[in-house]
Amino acid sequence: MSGGTREGEEREPGHAFETVAAVADLAEGSLLGVRTSAGEEICLFNFRGRVGAVHNVCTHAEFPLSDGTLLKDGTIECVWHGAQYSCLTGEVRRGPAIEPVAVYDVRVEDEKVKVRRRMP
């Protein structure tokens, strides 16, 4: 059988998961800025043992969210102007931002964090 995919990969082009970090690099309660092979800036988080990802650019002033803080309630706070976002939904919790931040699909397999790339 030809044209098959490797285990854990998606069949549709542009929807593949890509390894971006090791789980060991992401301690509980921390943020980590990474970049995909396509150059997308991603902010990984570890919230109560749940590893996830949002776009690593604050929608208010385009500063890296990974430079901020993950608060105990799952809020990511931008270090520059204090905008806050839900790490799970990307919704704005406090301005000055008004636009939500994009959320990525994440898989953890074999102690590696994999993120689904967005379509161009």
How would you explain this protein's 3D organization?
This protein has no helices and eleven strands. By secondary structure, it is mainly β. The chain has one domain (17-116): Rieske [2Fe-2S] iron-sulphur domain (Rieske Iron-sulfur Protein, 3-layer Sandwich), CATH 2.102.10.10. Strand 6 and strand 7 (84-86) form a beta hairpin. The protein is globular, with a radius of gyration of 15 Å. Residues 1-12 have low confidence and may be disordered.
Name a few traits of the molecule.
0% helix; 120 residues; Rieske Iron-sulfur Protein; 4-stranded antiparallel beta sheet; mainly beta
Helix proportion of residues, in percent? under 10%
Low-confidence stretches: 1-12
Tally of distinct domains? 1
- What is the mean pLDDT? 88
Determine the N-to-C terminus distance.
30 Å
Please give the radius of gyration in angstroms.
15 Å
The number of E-state strands comes to: 11
Report the β-strand fraction as a percent range: 35-45%
Number of helices: 0
CATH fold call: Rieske Iron-sulfur Protein
